[in-house]
């Protein structure tokens, strides 16, 4: 049984005649009659009875008609959907996002993209850079927004943002010096460490002969900000997320080696779906 047989069956049922149905199907009576007989043989029962005015569906034929309509309708919808996916006008995008993406996404370009392609579904996975790259390599994501540095082997990359580091503190508990902060001023505060940057911070402090105190360590930039807001210390996070999630005082860090890049990445060895490619261009 195939879709062609089912479509032929539906036309014959609607026309009540093989000859009339054959004209609509751009075929002749013998091959169409053979198709119907083969279909009846496959389902194991007669689907039509002959009447003076033409063909009439049997009770089994009426039941089969309902199923055939559903199957053909699903097949038609699937064909149309695949064509639109192939053209990049609809589909699903599996997107990984780091917690420190902040105001980088969504942005006006992404909003414009979803308005232009209303049938696109975006499935978001929140995780850290290394977890997202692992999911990408295991084909669980189409693309991911991550923060450098990371292992770029096998990945296509495009930079979408730059960030300076900021210190976040509740002025009720910690009065930070005015203006941009240097490493010595930062090291004198009880710090809330977002572990993503632990090795980078430790290396910089050590090179400058400083020994900071980490009051809190966590794995999410939003957690670091929340604890800073509650007066548990001073959080060091990228500026983009600090501006989004904190109402407290922010001080830029005057140390260029702590500046980071946000990038969108996807696998080089996998074909990029048209709709995903358009999303990358929007980013």
From the N-terminal CA to the C-terminal CA, the straight-line distance is 46 Å
What's the structural domain tally?
3
CATH architecture of the largest domain: 3-Layer(aba) Sandwich
Main sheet summary: 5 strands, mixed
Structural class: alpha/beta
What order do the SSEs take from the amino end to the carboxyl end, as H and E?
Answer: HHHEEHEHEHEEEHEHEHEHEEH
Oligomeric nature of the chains? single chain
Shape: rod-shaped
Helix percentage: 40-55%
**Roughly what is the average pLDDT, rounded to an integer?**
89
**What spatial order of strands do you see in the largest sheet?**
4-3-5-12-6
What's this entry about, in short?
Belongs to the LysR transcriptional regulatory family. With 283 residues, this protein is of the alpha/beta class.
């Amino acid at each position: 049984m195939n879709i062609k047989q089912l479509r032929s069956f539906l036309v014959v049922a609607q026309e009540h005649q093989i000859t009339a149905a054959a004209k609509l199907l751009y075929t002749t009576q013998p091959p169409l009659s053979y198709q119907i007989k083969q279909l009846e043989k496959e389902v194991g029962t007669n689907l039509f009875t002959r009447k003076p005015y033409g063909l009439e569906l049997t009770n089994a034929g009426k039941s089969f008609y309902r199923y055939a309509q559903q199957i053909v309708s699903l097949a038609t919808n699937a064909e149309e959907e695949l064509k639109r996916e192939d053209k990049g006008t609809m589909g699903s995008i599996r997107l990984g996002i780091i917690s420190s993406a902040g105001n980088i996404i969504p942005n006006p370009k992404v909003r414009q993209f979803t308005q232009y392609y209303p049938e696109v579904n975006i499935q978001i996975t929140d995780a850290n850079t290394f977890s997202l790259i692992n999911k990408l390599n295991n084909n669980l994501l189409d693309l991911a927004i991550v923060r450098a540095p990371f292992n770029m082997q096998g990945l296509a990359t495009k930079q979408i943002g730059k960030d300076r580091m900021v210190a976040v503190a509740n002025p009720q508990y910690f009065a930070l010096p005015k203006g941009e902060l240097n490493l010595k001023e930062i090291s004198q505060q009880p710090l809330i460490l977002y572990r993503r940057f632990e090795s980078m911070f430790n290396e910089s402090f050590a090179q400058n002969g400083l020994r900071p105190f980490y009051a809190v360590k966590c794995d999410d930039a939003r957690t670091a900000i929340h604890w800073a807001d509650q007066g548990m210390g001073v959080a060091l996070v990228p500026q983009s997320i600090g501006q989004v999630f904190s109402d407290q005082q922010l001080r830029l860090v005057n140390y260029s080696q702590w500046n980071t890049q946000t990038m969108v990445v996807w696998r080089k060895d996998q074909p990029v779906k048209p709709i995903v490619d358009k999303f990358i261009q929007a980013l």
